[in-house]
TrEMBL record, chain B:
GO terms for biological process: DNA-templated transcription initiation. One of its GO terms (molecular function) is sigma factor activity. Residues 132-182 form the RNA polymerase sigma factor 70 region 4 type domain. This is Sigma-70 family RNA polymerase sigma factor. Belongs to the sigma-70 factor family. ECF subfamily. Keywords: DNA-binding, Sigma factor, Transcription, Transcription regulation. The keyword Transcription applies. Residues 35-101 form the RNA polymerase sigma-70 region domain. It comes from the Bacteria. It comes from Candidatus Segetimicrobium genomatis. The lineage of its organism: Bacteria, Bacillati, Candidatus Sysuimicrobiota, Candidatus Sysuimicrobiia, Candidatus Sysuimicrobiales. The keyword Transcription regulation applies.
Amino acid sequence: MPHLTDQLSAYLDGTLTPEEAAAVASHLAECAECRGTLDDLQAVRNLLRTVPDRAPHPSLLPRTLARVGAAAHRKVAPRWMIAAAGAAVGLALLLQVRLLPAPHTDRAAGIWYFQQHAVFAAAHPMTDVALASYLSSVLPYEVLREWSATPQNP
Amino acid sequence: MTSAHVTLNSTLPVDELARTTDGTSARDRFAELLAAHWDRAYRFAYHLTGNAADSDDLIQQAAEEAFRAFHRFQPGTRFDRWFFRIMHNSFVDRIRRDRRRKIFSLDEVTGVVTSDAADPSAIAEGALDGPVLRALRALPPDPRAVIALVDLLGLPYDDAAEILHCPVGTVRSRLHRARLALREWLRPYVDAMKRGDL
């Protein structure tokens, strides 16, 4: 006859159906080992009841509610918005690669790129970093230096 | 009067507070519900983490997450179960993130706990919780959560299953295995308890 396992804990806790409980009781009447295990489990449960209640520090709840209030006032972008922004950046990179003409090294083309950048960045601020990174890789150093922040080009 | 310094309407069941439409803000309703279940929630956090500092962090993080999701809380359902579930999820996420936190197996810690077992008759009254708490902390997170909910907080199996997001049968088997592990680690105390010496 196999010994009882988790039915013993359930029996101890009174969570078995009447039929199940009767079957366990029947087994216990004939199995000293399972009766011993049941006694052990009862003792363990009694030991656990000696664990004192842990009270939180009185200031913890007010501090927590203050944090909740502060967090409620923070504007946290929802996950879908972050995901959409990421997708927009990726799409913008793809479009630049496909639509922009091949890089030019003359000054007029550089100015054109910066104009495009300004227009695009105004319409799509999230992609500004990605576009700037792209432009910095295709523009000649002289154009970048000329258009870096100066009193003439703030 | 709860520790939140908010007065609860004694004629209104606590979990009905979220249903009120008397002009109170969602934050006020959330604060009242949280305060009503605060002490038990803290006990759950404490037994999950095993120490005061981590339990403070855990319950604060859970409160923030719960408030962000408060619009999804269904009035009329049990706020404590809902909040416990969020807190347990936060705890599981923390464990996964924190690679430094070692998750013990039941067998690994047996020696650690039993070596601590002194003569039960020599234990001063009130000091028994020391070895019992150490044994609890040595349990892996899942069995520890079940013990905390069922044996320490007195929740029924189906509530524990709902909080832990697992079948009732899993709660039952985890609980049994955890109790058997505790029996081995706390053998001198178990025997003393059976003799009536404790």
